[in-house]
Write a structure and sequence with these properties.
The chain is an all-alpha fold. The chain has one domain (52-205). It has 8 helices and no strands. It has helices at residues 2-18, 27-47, 59-81, 91-124, 127-140, 148-168, 171-189, 194-198. α1 (2-18) runs antiparallel to α2 and α5 (127-140) runs antiparallel to α6 (148-168). The radius of gyration is 17 Å and the shape is globular.
């Protein structure tokens, strides 16, 4: 129980480090990654024989759950697409962005669900409280955005992904779901090319 409490406290501390980041090549980024690896290491130590990270008995139902969430989000994006301009992109850009988002989607699911949500559930034993705290934690890391539909969508997605994870496990399905939804949102609803701004050297490949 003590190790779960330590993981929880360190995870909360990541919020303050994240909001002090001015850019992603600062010393704070290195510090945040270091804390992240420590938390992840503690989480794997605390797992023992019980974790939702991979559950072969629910592999199909968890995949179906992730698919339903992805379709739900796709419909949501299409419904509000007409109110946003988006921007032009080519097939190479789409492939690169999807691969990148699936990778970072998996990392986010690893941190928000495997590390934080499952830890909270182990501490409280309460499904609803764990889901709400997990969704709020995920939402907090995305509050820099001024987009109302992004903020609302973030909390909803955090709730749906967290529910799917606690019910069925199998994190990798959620990583794929996260990657697809993030790519769809970014290409259809976002107003700026943040990919080029943050990873400038890839511009010549796109």
């Amino acid at each position: 129980m003590i190790i779960y409490a330590i993981i929880f406290i360190l995870s909360i501390s990541m919020i303050f480090i994240y909001f002090n980041l001015k850019n992603f090549d600062s010393i704070n980024t290195v510090f945040m990654l270091l804390i992240g690896f420590i938390i992840l290491g503690l989480r794997f130590i605390s797992v023992g024989g019980s974790t939702l990270f991979y559950n072969p008995t629910t592999i199909m139902i968890s995949g179906l759950c992730a698919t339903i969430i992805t379709v739900f989000a796709a419909i949501f994006i299409q419904l509000i697409k007409k109110f946003r301009k988006g921007f032009n992109y080519n097939f190479r850009y789409l492939v690169f962005l999807l691969a990148l988002y699936i990778f970072f989607g998996f990392l986010q699911q690893l941190f928000f669900n495997f590390v934080f949500l499952e830890t909270v559930y182990n501490l409280t034993g309460n499904f609803i409280i764990s889901i709400l705290l997990g969704a709020l934690f995920y939402f907090t890391f995305h509050t820099r955005s001024k987009s109302v539909e992004f903020l609302v969508g973030t909390f909803i997605m955090g709730t749906l992904w967290g529910t799917c994870y606690l019910l069925f496990g199998n994190l990798f399905w959620l990583g794929i779901s996260h990657g697809i939804i993030g790519t769809m949102y970014y290409l259809n609803l976002w107003h700026d090319d943040m990919l080029i701004k943050r990873i400038k050297f890839i511009a010549k490949y796109l």
